[in-house]
Write a structure and sequence with these properties.
Radius of gyration: 26 Å
Number of strands: 12
Structural class: alpha/beta
CATH topology of the largest domain: TIM Barrel
Largest sheet: 10 strands, mixed
Strand content: 5-15%
Low-confidence stretches: 1-34, 37-41, 328-363, 373-402
Mean pLDDT: 80
Number of domains: 2
CATH class of the largest domain: Alpha Beta
Distance between the termini: 16 Å
Shape: globular
Length: 402
Amino acid sequence: MRRAVAGSALSALLLLAVLVVQGPVQAPGTAAARLVATTSPASPPGPPLFAYYYQWFTPKSWDRAKTDLPELGAYSSDDPWVMRKHIQQAKAAGIAGFIVSWKDTATNTRRLRALMTVAAEERFLLSMIYQGLDFDRNPLPAARVAADFSTFAKEFAFNPVFARLGGKPLTIFSGTWAYSHADVARITSTVRPRVLVLSTEKNVEGYRRLADVTDGDAYYWSSVNPATNKNYAVKLAEMGAAVHADGKYWIAPFAPGFDARLVGGTKAVARNDGSILRTEYATALRSSPDALGLISWNEFSENTHVEPSKKFGTRYLQVLAELRNTNAPVPRSAVDSSAQPVPTEPGREIPTVGLLIGLPLLLLAGLTLVGRRLRRRRRVTGAAPPDVESTQPLASRRDGPT
C-alpha cells in the first residue's frame, strides 16, 4: 500500500512535470492533429513546411526552357549525391520534407526508392504527389491512376520515411479538377481510409465537390501576384476554413515568384529579392494551414525554385531560413509539427532556465511530502519502513499502467 501511495505520488509529480514542459495533449482526429514522423528532427515553430520536389531531370533536361541553372550543375535525378545535398540544404533552411512527384513508371519508382534511402539516412520526410495529368494536361485513365495509388499504398506509403497526418500517410492527387466525382471516388476508394488523399482543387466549390471522397486540399497556386490579385488572401483563408469545417487537412501554397513563358505561359511574377516569398509565406500562414507547401524546390521551367542556382545563389534559402526562425504570430489551429512547443498565452511563457531549476525543486518538495505522509502513517499503523520489499505477488502489483 505504501509503495502504491508513493508510486502514485511520484507518477502524479512526473506527469505534472511533463505537462509543464509539453503543454496539454491535443485530441486526435482534428484538422490540427500533429504531423507524426519517426524520421523527422525537431522543426521550427509553426506548421511543418514541405517543398515540392521534382525527379524528372537528366543532364539533357537543362538544355531546354531554362533561364537559370542549379549551382550543382546539370545533374541527373538518379544521383544519390545530389539527393543528399538537396536534403541537407533544405533542412538547414527549415524545410521538414519534400513532396515528391510520382507515378508508377520504372524511372520514377527507381528514383523514389533511392530518395527514400537517402531521406531516411538524413532523418528527412517525404510525401507523394501523384501527377494525374499527362504532358498535354489531359487526365490519365482513372483505372491507371487507381492502380498506381494502390501500388503506392502497398509498396511505399507505410515506410516510416513518409509523413503522416493524424496517423495516416499523406498523399496528394494533382489534377483532380480534370476528373469527375465518380472517377475520383473510384481512385481514392482503393486506398482510403488507410491513406490520406488530398485533392488539388483551386477554390472552395472545387474542394466541396470532392470533399466526401478526399481528405482535404493542397492548392498548387504558383502564379499568383499578391500585388495585383486583391482577392488572394481572402481566397486562401476561405479555402482553409472550408476544409477545416469538415475536420480535414489544408496545405497552403506559397512561392518565391513565377515565370513560365518559356514553356507556353504568358505570365511572370518578379521575385523582388525575396519580398514575394515573404508576402506569400505570411499569407499562407494566415489561412491556418496544417502544413505549408513551398512551390518549389526545383521547378526550374516555371522559375519557382529555391534550390541554390547560378542566378540567385542561396538567396532564397536564406530568406526562407529567416522566415522559419522568426517567431511570427501563428494561429493555434495552424500549429502542427510533431516536435514544436505548444504556444502559451502572452505573459505566461516559462523560461528554459526556470524549468531547469523549478522542476527539480518541484520533485524534491513532492518527495519530502510523500516521506512525511509515510512517517505519519507508520506512527499510526506501525507499518514497516518503506525500504522493506513488498510481499505482494508480482502479478498483483499496480505500480505500472492498468
